[in-house]
Every structure is written in C-alpha cells, then in structure tokens.
TrEMBL record:
Family: Belongs to the heat shock protein 90 family.
Alphabetical UniProt keywords: ATP-binding, Chaperone, Nucleotide-binding
CDD domains: HATPase_Hsp90-like (cd16927)
Coiled-coil region list: none
Protein name: Molecular chaperone HtpG
Organism superkingdom: Bacteria
Organism: Sediminibacterium roseum
PROSITE patterns membership: HSP90
UniProt-listed Pfam families: HATPase_c_3, HSP90
NCBIfam families: PRK05218.1
Length: 616
C-alpha cells in the first residue's frame, strides 16, 4: 500500500485550478465523462496499431446514480490505468495524460488537454474513489482522496478493464443526487459524444422488452460527408436540435481541415415576425463535446440569428472550456463562415431566385443585418439583396435603379428609393405616388430603420424617402406649388383657420395649390426628424432623447380643393372651426397620429356635423 501527498505543479497552474474549481459546478460531469470517452478512444487507437491486445468488446460509458448511498459513478471500458499511471496522472495535477498521449500518437480525437478535468469531481464530493484495471497485464488498482493533499493507492481485485470513478456527493451539492438533474447535464453536454453513454439509477429494474437507450447520438451528421447526406437527414437532425421549431429554410454544411479544423451545420430558421429573433441558438462543440452556446467571437454578429452546430478543436479554450480567448484561428473561422453564407445565398439567387424571394421575409433580416455590420459581406450581398415593392415584385438595387432612372432621380443626381413602413396605414400616400409612376419598396422589419441609414452612407448616390415624408409632388424634389385659385386674402384666412394647437404634436401648416383631385389636407412627417425618433425608440443611447420629443407634422392645406370655396363662406364660426378641425384630424388619422381622446373627439364632432347638415 502506498500513501503520500498529491504533487501539484504550482508555478502557473494552481491559480487556474482554483478559478476552475469554483466556476460552474455542473461541469464536473462533462469533464469526467469526457475523460471516459478519451480512455475509450485511446483503446481504439492502440488496438488499431496492435499495441492493445485482446477484444475491444462493447465500448460504452455508464453513469450510475445511487441516491441512497449518495454516490455518482462514471464507468468506462477504456484503456484503464496501472498503479504507476494513477500516481503519474492523478497525483501530479496538470500533468495531462491526454496531452502526452496526443504527442505520442497524434490522435486528434482526444478531448482533454489540461489534466484538470478529474479534479472537478472535488467541487461536488466529500470523497472520490477510483477503481481501474489497465488493458495491459496486471491487477486492478484503487485510489481514494477526501479533497486534502492526502491520498491512498493500492492494488485491488477489479476485474473489468477500464476505470470506475465513484463520487461521494457532499451536502452542498445534493442537487446532483436527483436523476433529472444528472440526465439534463448529460443531455446538454454529452449529447453527441462518440462513445455510447447510458444513465441508470442503482436498484432500478428494467422491463423484459425494454430496449436500453443511450443518452447520446454517437454519429451526428456534421462528422459525415455532405455527399453522404440527404435533405431528410439534415431536417431530421434539425428536429433533434430544436424539436419544436418549423422546418428550416436551408442549411450550410461546414467541412474544413486546412488551415484550421472546422465542421458543423448552420441552419437558416424561419422568422415570421421580427420579435421572434433569438440569438444564442448555435452550439459550439470541441470534438463532439458541448462547450457553450456563447459563440459571438467565432460567428459574425449578424449570423448569430442562425441555428445549428459548430465543432472545432482549433478554437482555444480556457480550462473550463466555457470562454473563448483571442486567437488568429478564431478570426479565420469567423471570415470563413461569412464567406460560406454569402456564397450559399449567391448560389440560391443565381440558380433559384424564386425560392430566395419566397423565403425573403426571413432571409432579409440576416442579409440586411450582415450588410450593415460586415463590409466584406456587403460587397457580395449587393448582388443578391432583393427589395419587394408594394405590387409584390422583387428588385435588386441595380434593377430598381434601372426601373426608376427617369422618374426618381433628384436634382443632385441621387436615386431616390421611395419606401413604406406600413402599406396598409400609408395606402393613400402609396396610391398617390403610384399615380405619378413611382415604385415604392416595403421596409417593414425591425432592422429596416437602421438599414436605411447605413445604406445611404455605403451606397453611392442613393437616398431613401418614406412615401409619406412630403406631398407627392415633393417626394423626389421640392417643387414650386401650382397656382392657387384662392386670393391672397382667402389664403391668409385659410392659414389662420388652420393654425391649430394640437397637444403632443409639433405642427407646421402650409397652404399650397395642389391638384383639385388631391386631398384637402395632407399630413406628412419630415424624413429626418421621424427617422431620429424611430432610432431613439429602438436603439436608445445618444438618440434616446429624440424618442421623447413631440412628433413633427406638416399639414399641407390644398387651397385648390373645392371644399374650401364652401368652407370660407360659412357664416357660423363654430361650424367653420369644427370643419377645419375635422379636415386636420382626417389627415392626422392617415398618419396614425390620432389616438385616445383626440380620436373620440373626432368621432363625436363628425356625428355633430353630419347631424347639422341633416337638420339644415
């Protein structure tokens, strides 16, 4: 029997161990199961080169919970350890067996690199025991430690090749004696490990016809060749990852082995409404071990809306495997993913444009977000960005420019892209613009306000104008008003009548000579101030104070409308004022600016005026 003190290499590693041991406690199970997988993979490698004799048998990992005895056991049938190896790899903390093995055999399928995973067991245990038997000749060994530097190590009669680790769970960690908690951790961290993992509770009996089910899928699609997979395989795997989601739009299979190792499948989900956007849906794995769903350093920000799996052993991690560190490989992987996504979208645009347009409601969010945040993506996306007009037709930027070349260029030579944020509410303005031959684009999503501002800076000679930003004659260029039928005195009288004090609005009134078919009053919201308010409401920060400012509204009174010939002759001042207020309210209603008490007053006033006309 051997007794001694655990030898800790303290120079650089001890502070890291302390930080590691007091981070996320559930990680202990991932680390111990990962070690068990390593032991199994090592045996496969040694057997394949003839260094391990005998039959491999069934390579599996068992996680057994005994709530009564307050123990949790992790059992593998891998290489096992001799007493000398236990002393070397367990008693000398941070002298990693996996690291040494990798150096010798260059086996890329080894998970552990730190030699600290085993010690995570002491985060939740009063005592840890190891039973192990090496694949080599010899008897089994037993090791135990209660968390102090003291340990025991001696030979025992342990007949099964491999290693069994028994954790005696401490009082503070009783949650890990609950079957649901353990199963949840295994399903989260070990769902795709390459060796079958089985979870059971001590003493539970199985029915005769009950088939034993492993926790994990040992053969996930991302480790296969794309040529070996069907559409159904990708959709089935998506359901495995996200059981309650709709079938994805399409996917991208990542398969790179130089200059870095990267595999994975990224899915474009269906997004029906902007508010459904959810990030942190991409899972990062390292050799099939779940690491994190915080992938913002690896995946470009605009592709955080994607879903799926990325697996790379080349992404540097700290010992808890939960946080990414700065590294050239991370930048290369980030750039590669961006290129793959852009190439896929470009391919769909060129070969299946109709399919792209059908899916644009969801795809547009990714594309616009990417164009705002990534200039390399912007360069490629300029070719496949499509914009839907109010008639349901799609245009690329170049196609829109060509279609509107003659009618929608302003005096500065800029192409004016007319857009609507709400085709139903802004219908009157849309119809007026269409009568002029203008083409109006729909910009209705969460990202469109920011997209418009950004593209005006990044696209040459392009200006966006919302369809209700001015009277239709002034949308492309400010024009002189037509001649008015009103005299100067009548014009002044009309302006005085429309000098209205409307709460919560900053109103400017102008009298213009529009066509007799135009509305008697048109309410417009100047483009700049409305954009600032929209940005302030969504983004906060420096623009937040704009959101608190009253809405800027211009009331353009059409002096040529026949209604004013009657209104100006009205002798009853009260009736005249009510008619003026109603005309103004109708214009405000078209902009969605008539609400609450103001809307109620408008309805009541309309009834009064109708009743008055009837009485007359």
């Amino acid at each position: 029997m051997q007794k001694g003190q655990i030898r800790v290499q303290t120079e650089n590693i001890f502070p890291i161990i302390k930080k590691f041991l007091y981070s996320d406690h559930e990680i202990f199970l991932r680390e111990l199961v990962s070690n068990a997988v390593d032991a199994s993979q090592k045996l496969k490698t040694l057997s394949s080169i003839g260094e391990a004799k005998g039959e491999l048998g069934e390579l599996r990992i068992d996680v057994v919970l005994d709530a009564k005895e307050k123990t949790l056991s992790i059992i593998d049938r891998g290489v096992g350890m001799t007493g000398e190896e236990v002393d070397k790899y367990i008693n000398q903390v941070a002298f990693s067996g996996a690291e040494e093995f990798m150096q010798k055999y260059k086996d890329a399928n080894i998970i552990g690199h730190f030699g600290l995973g085993f010690y995570s067991a002491f985060m939740v245990s009063d005592k840890v025991e190891i039973f192990s038997k090496s694949h080599k000749e010899g008897s089994g060994v037993y090791w135990s430690c209660d968390g102090s530097p003291e340990f025991e190590l001696y030979e025992v009669d342990y007949n099964q090749r491999g290693t069994k680790i028994v954790l005696h769970i401490n009082e503070e960690s009783k949650e890990f004696l609950e079957a649901g908690r353990i199963r949840g951790i295994l399903e989260r961290f070990c769902k795709f490990l390459p060796i079958p993992i089985y979870f059971s509770e001590a003493g539970e009996t199985k029915k005769e016809d009950e088939v034993e089910q492993s926790i994990n899928n040992t053969d996930p699609i991302w480790i296969k060749k794309p040529s070996d997979l069907s559409k159904e395989d990708y959709e089935k795997f998506y359901k495995e990852l996200y059981p309650y989601n709709e079938t994805p739009l399409f996917w991208i299979h990542l398969n790179v082995d130089y200059p870095f190792n990267l595999t994975g499948v990224l899915y474009f989900p269906k997004i029906k409404q902007s508010y459904e956007i959810q990030k942190d849906k991409i899972q990062l794995y390292s050799n099939q071990v779940f690491v994190t769903d915080e992938v913002k350093d690896i995946v470009p920000e605009f592709l955080m809306l994607l879903q799926g799996v990325i697996d790379s052993p080349d992404i540097p991690l700290n010992v808890s495997r939960s946080y990414l560190q700065g590294d050239p490989n991370v930048k290369k992987i980030n750039a590669h993913i961006t290129k793959k996504v852009a190439d896929k979208l470009d391919e769909i645009f060129r070969t299946e444009r109709n399919a792209l347009e059908e899916k644009w409601e969801s795809l547009g969010l990714f594309v616009k977000y990417g164009m705002m945040t990534d200039d390399k993506f912007l360069e490629k996306a300029n070719k496949f960005l499509v914009m839907e007009d109010t008639d349901g037709k799609f245009h690329t930027l170049e196609e829109y420019k060509t279609a509107t070349e003659t009618l929608q260029k302003n005096k500065d030579g800029k192409q004016v892209i007319l857009y609507t944020t709400n085709p139903v509410q802004q219908d009157a303005y849309i119809q007026a613009a269409k009568e002029k031959g203008f083409t109006i684009i729909k910009m209705e999503t969460l990202v469109d306000a920011a997209f418009i501002n950004t593209m005006e800076m990044k696209w040459d000679n392009v200006s966006f104008v919302r369809v209700d930003a001015d009277i239709v004659d002034n949308l492309i260029d400010k024009q002189e008003s037509n001649e008015m039928v009103l005299s100067k005195e009548e014009e002044e009288q009309l302006k005085n009548l429309f000098t209205l004090d409307i709460s919560d609005l900053h109103v400017t009134t102008e009298i213009k000579g529009l066509s007799t078919g135009a509305a008697p009053v048109v309410a417009t919201r100047p483009e700049f101030m409305r954009r600032m308010k929209d940005m302030g409401a969504v983004g906060g920060g420096m623009t937040a104070f704009y959101a608190q400012m009253p809405d800027e509204v211009t009331l353009t009174v059409n002096g040529n409308h026949p209604i004013y010939q009657t209104l100006l002759k009205e002798k009853n001042t009260e009736t005249q004022q009510k008619q003026v207020k109603n005309l103004a309210d109708l214009a405000l209603l078209s902009q969605g600016l008539l609400k609450g008490n103001a809307l109620t007053s408008f309805i009541n006033r309309s009834v009064e005026l109708l009743q008055g006309n009837k009485d007359a």
